[in-house]
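Think of the structure tokens as a kind of shorthand, similar to the way a musician reads notation: each symbol stands for something richer, in this case the local conformation of the backbone. In the example below we present two proteins back to back. Begin with the first one, reading the sequence and then the tokens, and try to describe in your own words what changes along the chain.
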Amino acid sequence: MKTHAANNGFTPRQTQNLLNSGRSYNYYLYDNQIDNYKQDHYQLHFTHEFSKKFTANLSFHYTKGEGYFEEFQREDNLAAYKIDDVIVGNDTIANSDLIRRRLMDNDFYGFTFSTVYQASNKLKFNFGGGLNNYIGRHFGEVIWAQFASNSIPTDRYYYNEGEKLDGNIFLKTNYQLSNKVKVFADLQLRNINYKVAGDDNNRRLLSVDEDFLFFNPKVGANWQIDNNNSAYVFMGIGNREPTRSDFIDLPLNAPRTNTGKPESMRNLEVGYEHRVKKYYLAANYYLMDYDNQLVNTGHVNDVGAAVRQNVDRSYRMGIEFQAAYKPIEKLQLSVNATYGKSKIMDFTEKVFNYDSGEEESIIHGETSIAFSPEIILGSELSYQALKSFEVALLSRYVGEQYLDNTSNKNRMLDAYFLNDLRLTYNIPTGLLKSADIQLSVNNLFSSNYASNGYTYSFISGQMITENFYYPQAFRNYMLTLNLKF
């Protein structure tokens, strides 16, 4: 970790403790630093069989969600919470220790429908759709302050409301072209209206009113070559809208450009499978070609969620392997491997210059997409020691990955290799469908690794980069009881 203290939201004491800390320092020292959120779900389902060939389904749903998270802020600026400065004699107090809550109150409701028509033994249609509406209210309150001035606990220092109306219709069809070849098509039309109004927790005014219309077609074919071999091909176009965070979770000094655009992807996949009694082999090639892909910037917002941005042209391409081998009845080995390239064709980094007070552009050309390792390996070796007892060793390797989109080796997560041990005992019982108890020993050899992090770069006299990592636990244990009724 670099030792320069940026304006990252930490107090000077927190920054100093963090920079001098070991793996387990926690700067959230407030006892009631909690998340308290709940949802209540209500659903109503209808199914009617008009005939053996035609069935219809209709579902209504409503979800009520509400809650908050609470945190202590040391010497925060009162004006940021709409609280007047405190005047004591000739002294003006503009900062105060305080406890704040950020609250949510949301409603999600709508309906979905689908119909299934079996035209013949070879041809099947599925037509359906849905209409859903989400209303989310976000607001903040200061429930205690050392210098409260003119505020009361129920005052809201920010409030915004978002509404997302989402409607879609689709048509799917499957056709048995021959005894060995099956083809399918999936056509979806989707419309979204998204609005946000009010101000956010940084007191910035929000005004979003966007409409998106997407056509998402998919086609594919499966070929059963013989009893042991099969192949498939799949092609599709997928579109998705930006989220609320993509519109509003930008740094205070960043312009609202190059974000908030819908993402479009053209996808091709070709695969092959080979199955015999003792082993299984499969390979899959994939290509995802993007316009305006939403990628992580490497930054996080003030509650630790990843910040994203659009990049004009990018792709993900690679090959995936799977294999399983069972030399004897009680012993099985399964492995998987992925090798892939994830690239941005022409990436420009935006860096804030504190000396000039302006944002600067740094052109990097072709770069790797953040948090996209080229190599991922996994395996599971399991042995049925007794009829009711199984031992398994699970291993995984994750290659190097960049914290941002600059392909800068100084902003990188190191590769790591982990092993977990799993012991499973099936409990004999006549009362339940099944019951088992499982002991997991995770990170068996106490590897020192970080699986995630974030990075900030800025100019203050010179280019400065700060990397922050989320160190993971050494050897740890989990005991699980699974009951099926």
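Once you have a description of the first chain, move to the second and do the same.
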Amino acid sequence: MIADFLHGTVEGDPDVTVSAFAKIEEGSPGTLSFLANPKYEKYLYETESSIVIINRTQKPEHPVKCTLIMVDDAYRSFASLLELYYTSSQQEKTGREEPVFVAGSATLGKNIFIGAFTYIAGNAKIGNNVKIHQQVFIGDNVTIGDNTVLYPGVKIYQDCTVGNECVLHSGVVIGADGFGFAPQTDTDFKKVPQIGNVVIEDRVEIGANTCIDRATMGSTLIRKGVKLDNLIQIGHNVEIGENTVIAAQTGIAGSCKIGKNCMLAGQVGLAGHITIADGVKIGAQSGLNSNIKQPNSTLLGTPAMNYQDCIKSYVITRRLPDLKKKVDEMERQLRNTK
């Protein structure tokens, strides 16, 4: 049945059964594992898992004890199984816990769930099959699309929009004021009103405690298919292109424009008002202060540069102590020849 679901080919006992998942190096009888990276192949011969999903291109060099399911993409197939398991194991919640507050002018869709201590303000529009868990705040004029899930503690400020099939994890804040303050002559700062909103398109997932600021004017835009990790800060008037993925602790300053299909690793920092081309990959802890115009380029370092150039520079930097010793020795020899 598993092989049929994955469109895979079985090698071994086709009647073996499993009841749990396990990492391949920690497998035990009755568990299912996967192997996607060839460098971990040694575990294939050691594992006690009953079933292992592997790529069709993976040709075992030694006998294996487990049953193999050969698929086109082991990682993707395993993810599909986890999704199936998660969906089937979750209790479908509907109805309304108490206490909650729903304004009379709010519009609620069909088959929704509202957890206790949730507040839904005036003129909010909630789509069908939406799951709103406990202690969620939904402000005035907010729109939530169909099949979206808001986990406990999500806060969505007034006038913001969340699309269909989105997932917002606990502690997400959508639409807090952008960081706008005008310096005054007396060294004080005057707050610049932030009158825009945040628009999140369909199939976006946002990790816990990530904050997306409202635009000063217009909209901060998160395009469809974007995936954001935990603890990310996105400033006012930022635009993130379709299917871009951003890892934890990244900070994106105001008015940045990030293209489609980009990948930003952890702790990346982007200065304000810069533009990133489509398909760009930025390594962990990199800092950018200028536009990246070349699509599909890979960058690393602070300030970020071409990945290969950064690696070469890093190698040289590590050798600087030895190089200094050689220079000092050369200077000593030159002094002694005088």
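Compare your description with these statements about the second chain. The chain is about 15% helix and 30% strand.
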